[in-house]
Design a protein that fits this description.
2 copies of one chain form a homodimer. Chain A is globular. In chain A, the strands form 6 sheets. Chain A has an 11-stranded mixed beta sheet, with helices on both faces. Chain A has a 5-stranded mixed beta sheet with strand order 16-15-17-18-19, sandwiched between helices. The first copy, chain A, has 480 residues and is α+β, with helices and mostly antiparallel strands. The first copy, chain A, contains 14 helices and 25 strands. Strand 5 of chain A pairs antiparallel with strand 5 of chain B, so a sheet runs across the interface.
Chain lengths: 480, 480
C-alpha cells in the first residue's frame, strides 16, 4: 500500500484511469490475456450495481434464470447479422473430455441464440406472453484491445431477454428497461446519462433498434453504459418461435434484449474520480463512512476506541456501511490519503479532544479541504451522517450534470466539430447524414454518433456535415 | 402444465426425480450435452441458497472476488495430483478471435490454480494473512453421465479459497466452513447432514484432508452436499507462495478451499419430495404461501378478491413470500395439485364462506389431507402464518432426521453390508481397511465410504471387512 503519486487527469486521463483502478484495489490484470481479476473492493461495487438493478428488474416483473455457457456454433449462424457481428470475437471449445467435439462450442458472447432456442419451447400461446427473463452471467468476447472494466475478454453482466405478443409491447419493454438503466445510473451511480437511439450503423448485430444510455467521463469522452435492443421479429423468425394469438392465428413474437455490465464500474470511476483517487456515490459505495481513530499513546487509545465502538454500533444499526481503520503503525495522514484513493464518501475522525467535547470530525470526499470538514456532536450522529450521505449523493449528481452540460456544444460546421474533438467535448448537431458519412467522420475525427437523444428541440435545421435539411439532433463524441 | 401422474418413488426413485424436476419447473435440458437450463423457479431456489450462504460467509469475515473463467493449461499441471484428478474432465478453448491459441485455455473445473497464482502476489507478510476469499461462479467438468443438478457439465457454485499463517489456522478454517455448510443445510434446507472426513481414496485431488457433509436422500442413498478441503502447503508450494512470518522467516502459507453447488437443489428435492411433488422448507421456498381465491361467479369474486388483496398486503408487510394464483379457467383442485407439485409449504384458500366468517383455510404441504388443514381467523393472520412456517420448517427437519436415523444400521459383517446395500440404507461399521479394500467393496456392492463421521462412539471393535482391530467408525452407502 505504498502511496506514490498518481498521474494527474490533466496530464494523461487514460494513464490516470489505468493507475487508479489498481491503486484503489478494484482489480488487477490476470495471466489470461484481457481477463481481469476483480478484487474484493471492486466486486463489492459490482454487488451494489447488481442489487440496484436486480431490485428494479424484479419490481418490473422480470425473473432470473440461467442458460448454458456454451452455445453450439450452428445456433449463432441462424441470425445472419448476429453471426457477422460476433464471429471475429469468439472463443471456441474444440476439445472436451479428452476428445475433439463433433460440433465446436462457442463460449457465449451474448445469449440471444441459446435463449431463443428455449423460448421456442416455452411459448405456445399468447397466454405465455409476455415472457420476461433476466440472466446474470459471464460472457466472453475476444477483443484485440482491452482496458480494465471498459473492455475485457471476459466480463460480468446481466442480459434481459423478453418476448411479447405485439410490436408495441416489445417497444414499450425496450424503453422501460432503458428507463430502468437510466434510473439506476442517475439515482444510484450519480451519473447523468443521456437516453437516445443508436443509428443503424451503431446498433446491435441483429436488432431492429438499439437504445442507449451515454455517460460523459471526466475527459469529456463518452461511455456507452447500457443498451436496450428491440429485436423485432428477427430472432423469433430465425429460431422459429411461434404463438397462437387471441384470434387463434399463428404469429412470431417480438423480442427484446438489454444488457449492462461491469463496464459500469469504469463509468463510476471515470465520471467521478479526481487526482486523489475514486469518489464513490454513497448509494453504491462499499464503505460509506470510514472511522479513523486518532491517539498518541495507550492512555488516549482506550477512551477513543470506546467512543469508536459505541458510535460504530449506532451507525451500523442505522444501516450505514462503515469500516473502522484499526491499522497500527500508520499515520492518520497516510490513512486519509488511502481512503481518499478508495473514494469513501465520508471520513470520520475521532481523537482525544473529540472524546472530551463529545464531537467527531466529518470530512466529505466530494468537497476537498477545510470546506468539506465539520465538527458535529456525537448525539444524533446517525441522523446527521444519513443526511450528509444524501447531500453528497445529490452534490455528486449535480457536479456531474454541470460538467456534462458545460461540455456539450452546439456545432453547426464540420470544422467546428474537428476543433471540438481535439479540445474535448460532445457536439450537438443537426444531422441528416448516412452510415457512410458517419464512417468518414469517424475516420477523420475519431467521433461517432453516440445517440439521437430522445430529448429533441423540435423544428429543423441544416445538417452540419451534408448541408441537407435536417429535423433531428444528434450527439457526436469520441467514445471508449 | 398438464397434470399427468408422476412415477411413484417406491416404483423408481430415479425416474421420480427426473420427472419431478421438470414438472415442478425447476429446470430443463439444454441442447448442449449435459448442460442444464435453470428455470426461474429453480433459480429462485438457488438464490435462496446463495443468500443463506453469502450471509454466513460475510459474517465469518470472507470477501467475494472474481477470477477468470479461463485457466492456462500449464497452471493445472503444477500440482501433480490436481491435474491427474481433473484432466479427463476438461473443456479446452483452442481457438479465439479466429486464431489458434499458442497455449490452450482450460475452462475452469475449479479455481485453485488461477487463484493461487494471484495469492502469490497478494501475500508477502504474515500481516496479509489470513486471506479469506470466496467466488460465486460457473465451472465446467465434462462428465460422462449427467443428471439434473446432481452432475452436470456446467454448474453454478461458490468456491472459497483462503490462506493462513499456520497449519492450525488452516485446519480451523476448514472446519469452520464445514460448520457453515452444515448450519445452512440443517437450519435453512432442513437436511440433517452428517459431518465427517473423507478417506484418502475419496479426498479432493491435491488436498491434505477433505471434510464433507453427507445427506440421506429419500431412496436412502447418500449425496455429498458440500466439501471443505485443507490443502496443507501443497498448492502454496506448487505456486511458490511465500510470506515472512513474525520472526522474519520465509514460509509457505497453508491454504484451504471449500465448495457448495447447485447440487444442493437436488439434495432439497430428494431429501424432502414425495409422490405429489416437491416439499420445500419454508426458509428456502421461493413462495412460502400461495393464495388460491375460490369463487363461482362475479358476485362471489368481488368480495373474495378484496379479502385476497387485503390479506396479501398483510403477509407481504410481514416479509412473507407469497403468490396469488389468479389464473382463470382452472379448477381449485387443479391449482392445489399444481402448487403441491411445486412444494409450496402453505396453501391459503379463500372462498365466499371464508369472507363471511372472516376466516381463511390454511393447508400444510408437509401434513397431507384433513390433518394438515385448519380454518383460522383473518385477524392476526400474519402472525399465525409466521408461526406455521416455523412449525413446518421444524417438522420437515424432524421427519428427515427420523428417516435418516431409522436407515443407518450397525453392520458387523460384510454379507450384512451386501444385504443392506440391496435393501437400502447406510451402514455404520468399525473400519480399518485400506484404499484397495474400499475399491473392492465398491466394485462388489456399489457402496463407498461416505465419511469417517466426527461423532465417534469411542472404544474399539473389529473391522467388518478385514477383521483387524479398529478404533474408527465409518459410514458406507451407495451415493449419487
Amino acid at each position: 500500500m505504498a502511496q506514490q503519486a498518481v498521474t494527474p487527469q490533466s496530464v494523461d486521463f487514460s494513464k490516470w484511469y489505468n493507475e487508479i483502478v489498481y491503486k484503489a484495489d478494484l482489480c488487477e490484470l490476470s495471466p489470461v490475456r484481457g481477463c481481469l481479476i476483480i478484487k474484493p473492493y471492486g466486486y463489492e461495487l459490482w454487488e451494489a450495481v447488481k442489487s440496484g438493478l436486480d431490485r428494479r428488474f424484479k419490481a418490473t416483473g422480470h425473473q432470473n434464470a440461467y442458460f448454458p455457457l456454451f452455445i453450439p456454433e450452428s445456433f449463432l449462424k441462424r441470425e445472419a447479422q448476429h453471426v457477422e457481428g460476433f464471429s471475429p470475437e469468439l472463443a471456441v471449445v474444440t476439445i472436451a473430455g479428452g476428445k475433439e467435439l463433433e460440433e465446436p462450442l462457442v463460449v457465449r458472447p451474448t445469449s440471444e441464440t441459446i435463449i431463443m432456442d428455449s423460448f421456442k419451447n416455452w411459448i405456445q400461446s399468447y397466454r405465455d406472453l409476455p415472457l420476461l427473463i433476466n440472466q446474470w452471467a459471464n460472457v466472453v468476447r475476444w477483443e484485440m484491445r482491452t482496458r480494465p472494466f471498459l473492455r475485457t475478454t471476459e466480463f460480468l453482466w446481466q442480459e434481459g431477454h423478453t418476448a411479447h405478443a405485439t410490436a408495441d409491447e416489445a417497444e414499450a419493454e425496450t424503453m422501460q428497461m432503458l428507463d430502468v438503466y437510466a434510473d439506476f445510473a442517475i439515482t444510484d451511480a450519480a451519473i447523468p446519462v443521456i437516453k437516445g437511439r443508436k443509428t443503424e450503423r451503431e446498433k446491435f448485430a441483429g436488432a431492429a433498434h438499439t437504445y442507449t444510455i451515454e455517460a460523459m467521463m471526466g475527459d469529456k469522452k463518452a461511455l456507452q453504459s447500457g443498451t436496450s435492443h428491440n429485436l423485432g421479429q428477427n430472432f423469433a423468425k430465425a429460431f422459429e418461435i411461434k404463438f397462437l394469438d387471441q384470434n387463434n392465428e399463428s404469429q412470431h413474437p417480438w423480442t427484446t434484449s438489454w444488457g449492462l455490465s461491469t463496464r459500469m464500474i469504469g463509468a463510476i470511476v471515470m465520471a467521478h474520480g479526481d487526482d486523489k483517487g475514486l469518489r464513490l456515490p454513497p448509494k453504491v459505495a462499499p464503505i460509506q463512512v470510514v472511522l479513523v481513530p486518532i491517539f498518541k499513546n495507550d492512555d488516549e487509545k482506550a477512551p477513543v476506541m470506546e467512543a469508536v465502538a459505541r458510535l460504530s454500533k449506532e451507525l451500523l444499526d442505522a444501516n450505514i456501511r462503515i469500516h473502522v481503520d484499526k491499522r497500527e503503525g500508520m499515520s492518520p495522514g497516510f490513512k486519509y490519503n488511502d481512503w481518499e484513493m478508495r473514494g469513501v464518501p465520508v471520513r470520520m475522525e475521532i481523537g482525544p479532544k473529540d472524546v472530551q467535547n463529545n464531537t467527531v470530525a466529518l470530512a466529505r470526499r466530494d468537497v476537498p479541504g477545510k470546506e468539506g470538514k465539520q465538527f458535529v456532536p456525537q448525539a444524533g450522529l446517525a441522523n446527521v451522517v444519513q443526511e450528509l450521505l444524501k447531500t453528497i449523493q445529490a452534490n455528486m449528481l449535480q457536479q456531474a450534470t454541470e460538467f456534462r452540460d458545460a461540455n456539450i456544444k452546439d456545432v453547426s460546421r464540420y470544422d467546428e466539430l474537428k476543433t471540438l474533438m481535439d479540445e474535448g467535448g460532445w457536439a450537438r448537431v443537426w444531422w441528416a447524414g448516412s452510415g457512410d458519412d458517419e464512417g468518414r467522420i469517424k475516420d477523420e475525427t475519431g467521433a461517432t454518433v453516440r445517440c439521437i437523444p430522445f430529448e429533441q428541440p423540435g423544428g429543423s435545421g441544416t445538417c452540419f456535415y451534408t448541408g441537407k435539411p435536417a429535423d433531428t439532433i444528434a450527439l457526436f463524441a469520441k467514445a471508449y
